[in-house]
Design a protein that fits this description.
The protein has a single domain, classed as RutC-like (60s Ribosomal Protein L30, Chain: A, 2-Layer Sandwich). It contains two helices and eight strands. Helix 1 packs parallel to helix 2. The longest helix has 18 residues.
Length: 125
């Protein structure tokens, strides 16, 4: 069974993809960037501020899917610059303080809307 997950509490998709898909006990959340769902605009701020907005968006999608950040088993973080790893990691650690998920962090040449960070996750329902 495959179900599209959508919520107005996170940014609307920027293209032909879903915010998330729930399938076989998992939720696959598409990469989220620092867009405020109320304005559909990228927020102002540094990597820490953008990471916080990204994880709020991820959390809203997981909630809509009947899950939460506590159920995340895997994440991928894309950074515009690895020089921002510490700032991202500090905020990330606040969301995943106990039993953090497996994670990969990579530097990307360019991210959608020229943001500083993008994160996707896989969680249990």
């Amino acid at each position: 069974m495959r179900e599209v997950i959508s919520t107005k509490n996170a940014p609307q998709a920027l293209g032909p993809y879903s915010q998330a898909i729930r399938a076989n006990g998992f939720v696959f959340v598409s990469g989220q960037v620092a867009i405020d769902p109320a304005t559909q605009q990228v927020i102002a701020g540094d990597t820490a501020a953008q990471t916080d907005r990204v994880l709020k968006n991820v959390s809203a999608i997981l909630t809509a899917a009947g899950s939460s950040v506590a159920n995340v088993v895997r994440s991928t973080v894309f950074l515009k610059s690895m020089n921002d790893f510490g700032a991202m990691n500090e905020v990330y650690g606040k969301y995943f303080s106990a039993n953090p998920p497996a994670r990969t962090t990579v530097e990307a040449a360019r991210l959608p809307k020229d943001v500083l960070v993008e994160i996707d996750v896989i969680a249990l329902v």
